[in-house]
Amino acid sequence: MTPSLLRTLPVGLLVVGLAACGTGAGTGSEGGDADKSGPPVKVLMIGYPDEDGIDAVTGAKTPGIGQLQAAFDKANPTIKMEIVSIPWGEGATGYAPKTEAMIKANEACLYEMPAAPAYGKRGLLVNLDTMIAKDPTFKNLWGDAALESARSWGPDNPKNLFYIPNNAGVRVIHWDTKLFKDWGVEPLSAKPTIQEIETKAAQMTGKNPVTGEQNYGYWYQGKYAVWQFMAIAHAMGAHWGAETAEGKLEINWDSPEYLQAMEWFVKMSAYAPKGALATEGMPQGFLTDKNVVAIIPEGENGYFIPQLIAQPQMRERFRSSYNLKGADGLGGLNSVSPLAMAASCPNKEQAWTVLKWMASSPEAQAYYFNTSGRLPVVEGGEKSVPQVAELPDGAIVFDQVRTTDAVYPWAAEQPRFALQAQLEAALAGKVTAKQALEQAQKETDDWLSKQ
Amino acid sequence: MTIQKLSRQSANATTTGRKQRKPSRGATRNRPNHLPQIVLVGLLSIGGLAMVLPFVWMVTTSLSRQSNSAMPRTPTFWPPDPSLFNYEVAATSLPIERFYLNSLIVVGLTTVGYLFCSALTGYAFAKGRFPGKSFFFIAFLSTLLLPFETRMIPLYDLMSTLNWNNTYWALIMPFLAGGFGTFLMRQHISNLPDELIHAARLDGASEFRIFLQLVLPLCKPALAALAIINIIWRWNDLLWPLLVTSERDMYTVTQGLAMAGRSTGIHTGVALATATMAVLPVMIIYVILQRQIIQGIAMSGMKG
Amino acid sequence: MTIPKPSPADARPRVSAGRRAIRTGVFGGFRRTTVWYAFVLPPFALLVLFVCLPTAQTFVEGFYRETGPDQRQFVGLDQFANLGTTGVFWDALINTVLLGVAFLALVIPLAAILSAMLNHVRRGATALKVIYFLPQLTSSVAVALIFLYVFQPDWGLLNGFLHILGIDDVPLWLADPSFGLTGSRAAVTLLAVWSGLGYFILIFLAGIQSIPVELYESAAVDGATPLQIWRHITLPGLRPTIIFLVMTGSFDAMARFGDLWTLGGPSGSPARTLQSIVMLMYQVGFVSHDTNQAAAIAVVFFVIMLVLTVVAYRAFLSREFKARS
Asked: Which of B64, B68, B93, B102 to probe by mutation at the A interface, max A CB count within 10 Å?
């Protein structure tokens, strides 16, 4: 070892050590608001940006979570509210264990809680019907159907209202009018069927007759293909199973409808760019004049709404249709964000006021929309986000939010990961659809047996 | 991991002065050399290009705003629309400087602690005499047989029990003592002449003073090699930070990059700008200290 | 790689024993005995708390099953039997071994050749070493993140070059879960070779330089060609280096995590082809929250590492030390 390193190393380490002492002393003592008295209503929010940021595509400002806090404080000067913001994370440090730890330690009153029914089942949440009953000014802004579909089993009541939806994501089917025109294909219907998509995607795969470029009829987000598969399967009449009265899940993938859906999906994947299996999000060139994919299912709010707002010139080229619908008129992933109240909350009246504001106020709706393009779920919520109504298919986008499939209680659990992994294998042609479903069923059964 | 090291050390210790230890230049010069230098360097440079090109591509792509939504189908090494936009996006959405601070604190303190503990035990095992010495030494060595992955789940539970999750404690404390460092330092200190230490003892110096003022300065090369290895390990660790830190303000650079990669992955330009910010400072330090780092790694047979 | 790997415990060079014997005669005071405990006990306590106890706990957990909140039941070898019947476990194990073998089979010959060439370079050898070693210093996470895009089938760097070379039927890399030479496993093997090559070259160079110069000198006198010299002197002389690299490479391969996690998420997509055994342990323990099953995987992992260590010990120490002494 040469002398120069020996000289620099200790100095470097010393500097690092000093830096550690300086910051080590500072951490952990933040956030003490000495001038306020009484406990604030703490709200756990997941996945919102800590700071104001910049959208990577449009360059527009995205507001940090502090702006929601500020809007609340302005509108509710008499209530102290404090947002605890955490990222979605992953595994051990994901939102799920953090939520578990916080609810065990009675750390917050309100929770953005994707697994609200499971926590309700354990008796840890307030049945919000009790809050509604005590609230003379309550007005159901979310619609009876939305609240009805939010109800789930609890220890003392089979129909608890454990959460109220905050906002929702949306998944529509996009299509590129220019490519349709180039190929001389009729525009996609507002409510396309399986057959229509199959026919048109096949027609538009190949060398574009006008530009000579390689075009693709179809698209899928490989890493989240399971949601597209569920939409296809629902449209073909498949049903995953049910939650029993005791709150146990029964899941069946190994059915003729699922088989038919997977075989169709595998067939359609031939019309998609070859690399689709390894992707998330939209194809490269989407919403630009470089796009080469004609029909792009499962377009999520965050991928198209802010971009179309920022680029009016692309609105007529890239249109949106409803997601695939089943015989019940419903279809597409239900991605509402549920807001729940902990049973341990000491100041439930105040918390209820906060919950209502977070789930229905125009300011809150506008905030969710501005950070990630998430949409209001209250009646008249369109008014909070006038930008969407201006889009050519704004009405379809809003209506799609209201006509999704029901929530999947297994959406963040092993059955989903088992199905996703097998779906990937089937899409890659490594196993047959039948084998994939059988294996997914086996892994799901293993998991169910341990519940 | 240490086998080569062990054999080389024992060889060195027993055969000091043999031609084996001749500097490489001299050895090369003595060998017959028929291969034309230009062919050699040319071929090796092609390989070197393959080593460097992905990094170059990373930087040039990160400078293109278009790459967030429409990557060119044929790779370009000059951004069509050069700007620092992606860096602006990455810097406003991620506290990169905070990640660096966390990494510096964690890596710095673990390294200081690890070197100190290793030298302490290494000295005791090399020059000390006390009942139970073999027991302790074997106990230290046996931990080399226990892979970190085997204990990570109970260790995670322990951190939760101690309420250390999301603190520097969890990232530092489990990595202060280890069998490898103890072993390495014991080997080096064993080779120090006993007479020296004995003389200090006769002068009435305490063992701790001998350790601090005599032994430590004498094992600088070993400490430097151990430091380099430990810095690389801790800097690059993902598994453990992933388990014990959920608050973004506690992320290390490696973890912050992994999480950012998963959330901004669809925006190639921003993701690669983040990667550049995580990689470039390390590379610069590497280029400055390259000789020491490469020697340290070759000497100990360890890597990151 | 982040942690010290197991290595033979009993590898103390004989020389220190000799020196200790000398010192014993010189120094024998008893009052200085206790001070050594102050040196050894604090690190020992850390070791017990953070290494020994958690490891022991893993072994206990592996034989239990959680039956309710804070309740568990002794189930003997059930967790292990359960592992044996789940395809996911075998998939992860096979992946891990396969990726390790493929990596070593590629990187060792490549590094042997490149280091031999590099050893003959008179000017610029240092610069080349620095360049080849560059990826090794970059964290595996950063490398994986870059390669996520390098391997992108439709617009990635690698396929872009193949297009330029006139290859139209480009590989799908991470979008192809096949065992083939163009699939996801091949892609991550390329990635590992690319990032690990520098380290292997470095160790090979150190190995070459430890071969006694006299051997080369006499070969030169005999008029041997460089290739003959490489074949009959360098290669045999590198045997310990190769054994060392295979062994350490195996430990690293078994513990592979960061890059695969970055590329394929906890389940190692596509189609679980990139799930290593440590990733499975992570997924079972922290995504599915089955601590006991994860502990069983950890025990199996330990046993595999132990077997590798014993093999390393036998292959290296028994043969090499005898040969050298």
From this structure: B93
Which positions ≥6 away from B176 have C-beta within 8 Å?
B110, B113, B114, B117, C43, C46
Identify the three-state secondary structure at position B94. Answer: coil
Question: CATH number for the domain including B184?
Answer: 1.10.3720.10
Residue B209 lies in a domain: yes
User: Which tokens hold the place of C80?
Assistant: 């292990």
- List pLDDT tens digits, range B113-123: 999 999 999 99
Q: With contacts defined as CB-CB under 8 Å, which chain C residues touch A273?
A: 153-154
C88 touches A: beta carbon within 8 Å: yes
Check CB contact under 8 Å for B133 and C36: yes
Mutation target vs C (from A90, A431, A447; most C CBs, 10 A cutoff): A90
Structural domain contains residue B198: yes
Q: What is the ipTM of this complex?
A: 0.85
| pLDDT confidence band for C86 (50 / 70 / 90) | confident
The secondary structure of residue B68, as a DSSP letter, is G
A87-146 tens-digit pLDDT? 887 766 778 888 888 888 888 999 999 888 888 988 999 999 999 999 999 999 998 888
Single-letter amino acid code for the residue at B123: Y
In a domain, B86, yes or no: no
Q: Are A224 and A169 in contact (CB under 8 A)?
A: no
Q: How far is CA A169 from the centre of its chain?
A: 5
Whether residue B48 and residue C160 make contact (CB cut-off 8 A), yes or no, is no
Q: Which residues of C touch A275 (CB under 8 A)?
A: 152-156, 172, 175
| Chain C residue with Cα closest to A214 | C154
The span from the CA of A214 to the CA of A206, in Å, is: 5
Indicate the CATH number for domain A41-168+335-379: 3.40.190.10
Give partners of C (≥3 CB pairs < 8 A). Answer: A, B
Task: Specify the domain boundaries for CATH 1.10.3720.10 within chain C.
Answer: 80-324
Interface A–B counts its CB contacts (< 8 A) at 119
Q: What average pLDDT score do residues A258-265 get? A: 98
Structurally, chain B folds into a number of domains equal to 1
pLDDT tens digits for range A230-244: 999 999 999 999 888
As a whole number of angstroms, the distance between CA A220 and CA A276 comes to 6
List every span in chain A annotated with CATH 3.40.190.10. 41-168+335-379, 171-333+407-449
Q: What residues of chain B lie within 8 A of the CB of C321, using their CB?
A: 7
> Quick one: pLDDT at residue A409?
83
pLDDT at C6 over 80: no
Residue B13 predicted with pLDDT over 70: no
Tens of pLDDT, residue by residue over A310-354, are: 999 999 999 999 999 999 999 999 999 999 999 999 999 999 999
Contact C39 B121 (CB under 8 A): yes
Give me the phi and psi of A297, to 5 degrees please: -75, 165
Domain A171-333+407-449 indexed as CATH 1.10.3720.10: no
Contact (CB<8Å) A24/B242:
no
Query: What is the percent of chain A where pLDDT is above 70?
Result: 91
C271 → closest Cβ in A276, A428, A442: A428
Q: What is the residue whose two structure tokens read 């595998």?
A: A266
Confirm whether B292 is domain-assigned.
no
The CATH code of the domain at C80-324 is: 1.10.3720.10
